[in-house]
Amino acid sequence: MRLLIVDGYPEDARERHRAGFGLTPGEAYAAVVKRIVPAAACDIALPADADAQLPSGAGLSSYDAVILTGSPLHVYHDEAPVRRQIELMRAVYDSGVPSFGSCWGLQVAAVAAGGTVTPNPLGREVGFARRITPSEAGRGHALLAGRPGAFDAPCVHLDVVASLPANAIVLASNGMAGVQAAEIRHGRGVFWGVQYHPEFSLTELAAIMARMAEPLADEGFFRDPAEVAGYVEDLRTLDADRSRRDLAWRHGLDEQVLEEALRTLEIRNFVARCLGGDTMRH
User: Fold this and answer.
1) pLDDT tens digits along 84-106
2) I want to staple 167 with a disulfide (CB 3.0 to 4.6 A). Which of 94, 185, 188, 245 is the partner?
């Protein structure tokens, strides 16, 4: 299986992620995919970079699937790093190659097909998206196969999909976002995406929250940056030692977040559908 991982981060943000976690977002996503399919070959594209060598339509067609990461960018900002990613996503749709995306990935896929993204009027959703609930369509959809009637997932985002394009369906939502999961059919392509981050381990989430300590305190999630540090340390400790039931209880985390096979379920379902070669292609 050959996949293209589209890392949506600009170079400076990628390097900050590497400094805090040890891998860039694209490398981290590729590592998750490799744990699911050890034989998978993953190439990484960097469309936020001005000198990025982006694949042509023929190049995209050589892949079995495309996966889009998150990003600190905002898709409604009219700037070159954003425009390149929207155009690349349109090329992915045109290629007919199945695609999947987390957070920014869902937002880019929605806008590339004619939807809209705005700042969330409810503010930032960070740490964990709580009580994500599949819609009636989502309960029977292969993307969410194996998920319970409500579940939590790692997340961090300020923006949300405000309106989906034509030929799209909402698969899940919660109190913070009306679109937590969706399928979008556009051109020759089918995209499955989520607003949360099934690829994030607790350690990767901790690294992101550590570098956001000041804004998280300013926005009232914590009393001060030192309190963020304590939360971050709890996440890292729990990731290293799943027997710490005290920490799991304190933060309200269950197996849907703590067990990698369950946390990454949407990625696993997407990869399985691509390997099966059925309805992911028109």
Assistant:
1) 999 999 999 999 999 999 999 99
2) 185
Q: What percent of the chain has pLDDT over 90?
A: 95
Active site residue 103: yes
Query: Residue 92 has which token pair?
Result: 């992915």
Question: What residues form DSSP beta bridges with 187?
Answer: none
Domain with CATH 3.40.50.880 in the chain: 2-199+264-276
Q: How confident is the model at residue 151 (pLDDT cuts 50, 70, 90)?
A: very high
Candidates 42, 103, 155, 274; catalytic one: 103
Whole-number Å distance between alpha carbons of 47 and 139: 34
Strand partners, 99: 66, 191
CA distances from 109 to 19, 89, 211 (A): 28, 6, 27
pLDDT at 279: 46
Residues 81 and 6: their CA atoms lie apart, in Å, by 13
Domain 2-199+264-276 matching CATH 3.40.50.880: the answer reads: yes
Question: Annotated catalytic residue: which of 27, 183, 199, 204?
Answer: 199
Catalytic hit among 197, 204, 266, 274: 197
199 labelled catalytic: yes
pLDDT beyond 60 at 124: yes
CA gap 27, 176 in Å, rounded: 29
Q: Is 229 exposed, middle or buried (0-12, 13-18, 19+ CB in 10 A)?
A: middle
Residue 274, φ and ψ in degrees, nearest 5: -65, -40
Q: Which amino acid is at 209?
A: M
